[in-house]
Structures are given as structure tokens and as C-alpha cells.
Amino acid sequence: MPNEVFKALGHPLRRQVMDLLRKGPRSSGELAEHFDAAWPTVTRHLNVLKDADLITAERQGTSIIYRTNTSVIEDAISSLMGMVAHDNGDDEQKEAAE
Amino acid sequence: MPNEVFKALGHPLRRQVMDLLRKGPRSSGELAEHFDAAWPTVTRHLNVLKDADLITAERQGTSIIYRTNTSVIEDAISSLMGMVAHDNGDDEQKEAAE
DNA sequence: CTGATAATTATCAATAATGCTAATTAGCAA
DNA sequence: TTGCTAATTAGCATTATTGATAATTATCAG
Of A1, A34, A94, B84, which is most buried by a Cβ count within 10 Å? Predict the structure, then answer.
């Protein structure tokens, strides 16, 4: 399930979008302005983020407003935390000390 | 810089490797056994993780032992935390209340 | 309806990722 | 050295991602 999330974050432009949206909602055009890429290119990156549920889109009159979906980011954080957590599955090789 | 990290985590097999290594160091062969994929395929996934610095490889006699590199995972966590953190850049649209 | 602006979808070429089999390197034991 | 096991690299086909331009949809003003 977090598969698409990590994949979506695996592109610098898309992480920059997340960073811009962190400061507040932005329209498609406002986002597109920040990049050298053509608008349709940015739109497609936005779709990747939307498919991963990392952002939401809402039409507001003539423009479309994007927002971050915080809970999904938190899920990804949990997933990463699991990768560094101690196990206790009685299967360890190390951590004899501590 | 965390670019390769997220990209590396964007594949289920590679995340499973991280999960297996969480329980302790494993050899290439032990890891390969856990998957349906052919050994060379697993090796390549391991190389992707190694290039992203998410794991380390150390030859031990005839076998090669892999371990997680915890600090890089922690960096990725920081990166994600930045995506949900409040900004205070005097640029907000929302959070008028609270 | 017409025109203008906002944004998306369609299509295509180039590049990257994935997974396989075959060939190769590395260490160790006899 | 020879032979054996562990693991990687090489090469190739298939599929996915990326990015651009062109065409399309959507909303609103008049």
C-alpha cells in the first residue's frame, strides 16, 4: 500500500511540490510557475501524487486547488520507523548488548 | 540527496529486504531465498539499496553480509516530517484558527 | 453563444527500471 | 591447480516513466 507513496516521492519535482504545498494550498498554475517544466508535465506529476493520495485536488471556480494529505505522509513515516525499530521477534543476531 | 532513497524504497521487494534486514544481518543467499525472483534479480535490488546507502555489504569469507544503514532511513524520516511540519514562513493561507 | 483563461488529457519519442539466462569473479578446501 | 559453493556482472527483451507539443474540457464574462 505505501508502494505508490514512495514511488511518488522518488522524483525531485514531486517532492518540491510537496514542499510548496506544505506552506498552504496552491493552484495548478501557481505550482506550474515554480518549475521549468511545461504545465502538462507538472499536471502529470500532480496526478502521480494524487494517485498516491499524497495530495487532494478541488475545483474552485476556474482553477484547481491542491493540498497535501497529511495522513498519508504520516503513514509513510510509520513505515520508515518500522525499518529502524528493534524487533523482539526472538530472531536477532545482534543487539546482545544494551 | 534523498532522491535515490525514496526511489529505492519504491519497490515492494526492496522494502521487504529492508524488513528482513531489520531483524539482523543476512547474507545474499539468505535474502534471495525469501523471494520468488531469481538470485541475480535480488542482487540487483540489493545494489539499488546499496547505491542509495540504505544498506551496506561486507564480504565474510565466501558469503556477503548485508546490513541496514539506519542513519539514512532516519534522514528519510526527517524529510517526510518536513512535509507535514508547520511552516511559520509568514506565507500561510490556512491555519487562521487553532 | 463567443471569447478568454485555467487546466487536463492524448500522443509520441526517449530514457530508465525490471527480470530473466548465461557468463564471470571470489574464496576456500583438497 | 582443480573443483565447489557464493555471489555478482553482462546482455537482452519487456514494460514503465518522463517530458514535450497538440488537442480537449471546463468555467466564467459578456
Answer: B84
